[in-house]
Amino acid sequence: MFYRDRKEWADLEPVPQDDGPNPVVKIAYSDKFTDVYDYFRALLKNDEKSDRAFTLTAEAIELNAANYTVWHYRRVLLQALEKDLREEMRYITAIIEDQPKNYQVWHHRRMVVEWLNDPSEELEFIAEILSQDAKNYHAWQHRQWVLKEYKLWDSELEYVEQLLEEDVRNNSAWNQRHYVISHTTGYSDPSILNREVQYSLKQIKKAPHNESVWNYLKGILQDRGLSSHPGLLEQILELKETHCSPYLLGFLVDIYEDSLENTSGDQVEVLSKALELCELLAQEKDTIRREYWSYVGRSLQMKYCSDDPSTTSSQHESPILGMKP
Amino acid sequence: MLDKHADYIAAYGSKKDDYEYTLSEYLRMSGIYWGLTVMDLMGQLTRMNQQEISDFIKSCQHDCGGVSASIGHDPHVLYTLSAVQILSLYDNVNVLDVDKVVEYVRGLQQEDGSFAGDKWGEIDTRFSFCAVATLALLGRLDAINMDKAVEFVLSCMNFDGGFGCRPGSESHAGQIYCCTGFLSIAGQLHQVNADLLGWWLCERQLPSGGLNGRPEKLPDVCYSWWVLASLKIIGRIHWIDKSKLRSFILACQDEETGGFADRPGDMVDPFHTLFGVAGLSLLGEGQIKDVNPVLCMPEDVLERLGLHPDLLS
User: Fold this and answer.
1) Measured between CA atoms, how close is B27 to chain A, in angstroms?
2) How far is CA A178 from CA A55, A157, A173, A306, B264, in A?
3) From the UniProt record, which GO molecular function terms apply (chain B) (predicted)?
4) Portion 79-108 of B in contact with A at CB < 8 A
5) d(Cα A135, Cα B216) in Å, to the nearest integer?
6) Beta carbons of A24 and B68 less than 8 Å apart
7) Nearest residue, CB atoms, B25 vs list A17, A215, A222
8) Which of B19, B170, B209 is closest, CB to CB, to A175?
């Protein structure tokens, strides 16, 4: 039954939608929607804090869960009417199940969890949502907040591994892996770092064309030296024979670049290999990013090529003009 | 096809009986910003009703200074920015009480430098961007603790060079746009690892030529904006295969109705129309005005305001 026909709502004057400019032409959109929102606006106008208002917010949310003003109002009512927050948890659980890709619903849940100071349902609930869409950005944010806020790290690495078993290309899971380890053991311990390197290489064997794992591998090693990790270059060169990909070739370039940067002595061979790979990537293996590969090749050349004429001429640079090569 | 797109946007504003239009009331201010900006980029801003829109915006500013998406909605930094952007297009920010806007934005900054979206406290780097973009347009960047704001955004930089919504959050092109835009306005772009981030961003390009927002996801025309603008800001826009991207964006047009959809064949909407056209502008499309990659507004508007956010080269 419409609110406009309900006796117990007769005291309220419904407020039609006011987008400002032209008068609203109410033809196509649903009568129910108009009715509920006209009464929502009436309640807001009177700043009414009652059970009937609270009940109506649920209807308004059902019709448009993205409407942040309705959620605000519901929270105000939750507090003003001292509503049962456990019941609210059940409510928000149902809403999120139905509409998991909405900022407001997750923020609302977080507020309720904070008010209750009880995260005990969270990890299981989020896992349930992720089982429907393992990359839901909102779900992952909420999960990270729960883990950090309530220090619930214990089983998270295991959970991440399970997700990666199901889909090794899940970038969110790789990000989570980094998050968990960063917040627990860290990567400074060489045995942990190596464990992660070997884990990554294992996943690469399973699915060589996987952006995420290569970004992860580079990410964990870049501050610690790609070229100095024991045995890594050899392992990559081995993989190149059987599980090659543009990512692998790009990673090799990264290793060679790191070697050029951090090793002294003659590196002509290393430079030459790196340049060859950049050429291969630009011309054949990753042509859509040829500009990037050309840039990398040029940069390496400029920086490390000892017979680059421009570097020799810098020895003759004019002290007055201070011209750079 | 620009005329068709302009017709689509011009008509969209008047379809107030449309269900989708009603459903999107909670973001109306941003919807108006998208529509007006794309019209201005196509040189057709005059087709929109400046007076009505200005009156509407005025009635959306609350006592606290913040602006809501529509009448009867609560204020939020997202819609505060959209309102200021719209009024900047019209060179009429004084429709709002500017001092109060500044107060509202200042009040959203947290101790750790982050910004909440509104009084309910959701934290997100999107809001850091909205805050400084709003203040930059009003010439009031001094109102916040910029050092702390920068510190927070940098704490959201990830191992892959990208940025997420909060520290530790997965890198995402939309968030990267907000953070690089933020750092540009803050004069801190040198803190970005441009080669590393540039690589992550150009990895978004799929064989179809379209761009996705994170690894292993589908392309969407709005990423033509988030990714491309970010690349432009960090001086690496040439790392994208431009002609392939252009083909993808054009394929997202609807030749019958006008407007752009998220991907070829889907329903069009003003959001994707703006970002499709803005993306084409960044790619150098002659018939579209130059768009500023930091603020997603016509360059000539920023010129008038004397705003030149940094870009890396």
Assistant:
1) 8
2) 43, 10, 9, 39, 35
3) metal ion binding; Rab geranylgeranyltransferase activity
4) none
5) 10
6) no
7) A17
8) B170
Two structure tokens written together for B233 = 């800001």
Q: How far is A167 from chain B (nearest CA, A)?
A: 11
- CB contacts of B53 in chain A (<8 Å) are 20-21
The whole-model pTM stands at 0.91
What pLDDT digit, counting tens, does each position of B127-155 carry? 999 999 999 999 999 999 999 999 999 99
Task: Tell me the ipTM for this assembly.
Answer: 0.92
Are the CB atoms for A306 and A314 separated by under 8 Å? no
∠ CA B171-B176-B177 to the nearest 5 degrees? 155
Q: Which of A106, A109, A141, A245 to mutate to test the interface with B (most CBs of B within 10 A)?
A: A141
Q: Which of residues 114-153 of B touch A (CB under 8 A)?
A: 118, 120, 122
- pLDDT tens figures, A37-66: 999 999 999 999 999 999 999 999 998 998
**Which of A17, A107, A220 is nearest residue B22 as measured by Cβ atoms?**
A17
Tens of pLDDT, residues A266-320: 789 999 999 999 999 999 999 999 999 999 999 999 998 866 555 444 444 334 3
